[in-house]
Design the sequence.
């Protein structure tokens, strides 16, 4: 079905086309080098949905393949949410990978079933299931990196979304270019408009994301309404401006997080199984602005989980540390509780 299109894609992705002369590829190369995303000889999984961003990601990685001696593998997850449309996307990705001569792994996972089990939003369920699939595949095939197609436009939407919902400095930092040392986002400094122009110039096919127009999602409202309004009425460069804010916040967070992790490693030398006692003074002696970060890192280290730690947890612990709230038992993630007794915080793991 896509044979003629793919033959053309295969041609333009080859060395016959001077891909490295394009503005987009040069920008991606700068991002890769700045954040040390790739090393020569890396095995990289490209997460490809079939949409514009991921197809452009695959195109650029193919252009870099020989220069960086990369081994590329394509990965696609059918979230089992959109019936025949999802099946069409899976076929598209499979045929694209075949015409490029790349290994391709396509799986189906029931996101709605996960959502019901975890009582979370559909978007959160899809994100968790998708990342689990990619992590498992990386372990299975021994890849060094997993490349994702997030763009500068996604970054601006994410930061604005967190700002609207309420966030800390971590939320204002947005999407990190590199996470866990192996999730990389080479397109994070390229806008969606640049991606679409690049694909149009290359006459490269992709499948439009039908969910991107569903207005009940906050991200789509920001994409289709808020950002155009800000561009038209306030700042034509709003995407660039918000991305600059995110980059500055990332730098600050990296420095502060490193300081906090070093401190918390001294306070909690190892994760405890059932209980841990910490002198209140070990947190009290730090500025209030720093206490919140310490508390969050402490909870993550003691409970051995970083997800599900909310501002309400941090604020409640900070209140009992500074005696501005009642000395009540606070429920933490992972069946842990914390309470203040005299001058100590007592963390305990207990069944509810």
Sequence:
């Amino acid at each position: 079905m896509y044979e003629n299109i793919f033959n053309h894609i295969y041609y333009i992705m080859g060395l016959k086309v001077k891909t490295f002369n394009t503005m987009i590829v040069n920008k991606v190369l700068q991002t890769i080098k700045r954040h040390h995303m790739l090393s020569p000889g890396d095995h990289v999984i490209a997460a490809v949905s079939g949409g514009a961003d991921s197809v452009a990601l695959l195109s650029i990685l193919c252009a870099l393949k020989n220069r960086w001696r990369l081994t590329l593998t394509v990965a696609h997850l059918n979230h089992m949410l959109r019936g025949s449309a999802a099946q069409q996307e899976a076929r598209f990705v499979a045929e694209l990978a075949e015409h490029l001569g790349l290994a391709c792994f396509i799986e189906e996972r029931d996101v709605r079933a996960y959502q019901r089990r975890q009582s979370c939003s559909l978007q959160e369920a899809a994100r968790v299931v998708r990342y689990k699939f990619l992590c498992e595949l990386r372990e299975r095939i021994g890849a060094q990196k997993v490349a994702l197609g997030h763009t500068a436009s996604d970054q601006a939407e994410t930061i604005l979304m967190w700002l609207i919902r309420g966030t800390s400095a971590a939320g204002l930092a947005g999407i990190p270019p590199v996470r866990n040392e192996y999730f990389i986002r080479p397109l994070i400094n390229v806008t969606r408009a640049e991606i679409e122009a690049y694909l149009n110039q290359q006459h490269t096919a992709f499948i439009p994301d039908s969910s991107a127009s569903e207005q009940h999602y906050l991200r789509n409202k920001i994409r289709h309404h808020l950002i155009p309004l800000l561009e038209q009425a306030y700042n034509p460069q709003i995407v660039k401006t918000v991305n600059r804010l995110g980059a500055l916040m990332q730098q600050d967070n990296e420095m502060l997080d490193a300081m906090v992790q070093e401190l918390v490693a001294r306070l909690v030398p190892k994760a405890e199984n059932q209980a841990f006692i910490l002198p209140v003074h070990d947190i009290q002696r730090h500025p209030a602005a720093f206490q919140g970060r310490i508390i969050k890192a402490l909870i993550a280290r003691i409970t051995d989980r970083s997800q599900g730690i909310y501002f309400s947890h941090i604020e409640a612990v900070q209140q009992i540390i500074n005696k501005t709230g009642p000395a009540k038992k606070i429920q933490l993630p992972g069946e842990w509780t914390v309470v203040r007794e005299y001058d100590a915080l007592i963390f305990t793991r207990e069944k509810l």
About this structure: Confidence is low (pLDDT under 50) at residues 14-21. The radius of gyration is 23 Å. The chain has two domains: 19-251, 270-349. Strands lie at 43-47, 71-78, 103-108, 145-147, 178-179, 183-184, 275-279, 330-332, 336-341, 344-349.
